[in-house]
Amino acid sequence: MRLSGRLIIAGLAVLAGGSLAGCSASPGLAYANGATRAAGPASRAAATSPPPSLLPRAASAPALATEPATTAPHVVVAGAPRGVKAKAGILADATTGQVLWAKSAGTERPIASITKVMTAYLVLQAAGAEGPAGLEKKITIPKAVLNYVWKYGANSAGLVPGNVLTVDALLHALLITSAADAAYTLANAYGPGLPAFIAKMNAAARQLGLTHTYFTSPDGLPYPTETSTYSTPAELLKLGEVAMRSPAFRSIVDERFYSMKKGPGHRSYWWGNSDELIGHYPGAIGIKTGYTDDAGHCLLFEAVRGGRTLIGVVLDSPPTGPASGAQDAARVLNWGFALKQST
After folding, report:
1. How many domains are contained in the chain?
2. 213 confidence band (pLDDT: 50, 70, 90)
3. Annotation marks residue 60 as catalytic
4. How far is C-alpha 49 from the geometric centre of its chain's CA atoms?
């Protein structure tokens, strides 16, 4: 990222003020279909309860609500965040479920690499079912990954065909550096094969009640068309919250970089986090970036400050620079953390 973009994000954070708290252990927010959604492709099946292996952050799931639960602190919403250039977005209190701000929150839009949150979700489900050693399972990088990355001009972690990496290492490549070669490798291993894995992604979306979300790839690459993979801000918020219930997922997306020394079966690797909030916006703890020409800059984010946890999404921030999504997210978070709570 350019230094100017980092300085803008850091400056926005300084303007926000407030104290910095650690990672929240508060119950998470699990959303239902509360947001109004624009007409789109035919609705898909209704949801059932999310699988249990990603539920440590909340034992039960309150519905998405514009008003907080009567037993929780009420955030007094005044005005709206200024200077946000994203075409759509949403911000919510992750503890109470109160929606603080929304802009076209029910409109279907391409979501680029935020898609990889669902890929990680499914891989973690499968790895969890294999027991404690699931994340240490070793996967050989397939030869076909090079052509896949080249064909679509995709972002790559530089994975070398024939190298053998653990599921944990591949998840770091997937989520930290947003690597399509890692998505391809994991999808092929856990489908098995891309078609089967994509079918699992859409089945999981239905199970979670994401009726305006659809996937055609494990990475958000724009095929067969720029808008084939899509969701809404409200539904991405739900997906992000469910994923963040996993301690493994949460720890990965909070890392600034990941390095691995050369070892048996693989070369050395170093990957930096594509989320420009991490390490530059105080309290940011994840979660995933995205960009394509049609999707614009996208960011699903979560931050903790003063004991409060906010989660949000901005979609289609303008291509003024690689940090434009992070800058919009910082403005939204600054505004949200400045809101007062009443008992």
Report:
1. 1
2. very high
3. no
4. 20
Q: Which is the catalytic residue, given 24, 104, 156, 178?
A: 178
Compute the average pLDDT of residues 318-327: 89
> Averaged over 320-341, what is the pLDDT?
93
The rounded distance, in Å, linking the Cα atoms of 311 and 62 is 15
**What is the domain-level CATH number for residue 338?**
3.40.710.10
Catalytic residue among 24, 103, 104, 116: 116
HEC profile of the chain: CCHHHHHHHHHHHHHHCCCCCCCCCCCCCCCCCCCCCCCCCCCCCCCCCCCHHHCCCCCCCCCCECCCCCCCCEEECCCCCCCCCCCEEEEEECCCCEEEEEECCCCCEECHHHHHHHHHHHHHHHHHHCCCCHHHCEEECCCCHHHHHHHHCCCCCCCCCCCEEEHHHHHHHHHHCCCHHHHHHHHHHHCCCHHHHHHHHHHHHHHCCCCCCECCCCCCCCCCCCCCCEECHHHHHHHHHHHCCCHHHHHHHCCCEEEECCECCECCEEEECCCCCCCCCCCEEEEEEEEECCCEEEEEEEEEECCEEEEEEEEEECCCCCCHHHHHHHHHHHHHHHCEEEC
pLDDT tens, residue by residue, 64-110: 444 444 456 788 898 999 999 999 999 999 999 999 999 999 999 99
Residue 178 annotated among the catalytic residues of the structure: yes
* pTM for this predicted structure: 0.82
* Catalytic site includes residue 103: no
Over residues 102-131, the pLDDT tens digits come to: 999 999 999 999 999 999 999 999 999 998
**What's the domain range around 228?**
3-342
> Could you report the per-residue pLDDT of 290-312, keeping only the tens digit for each?
999 999 999 999 999 999 999 99
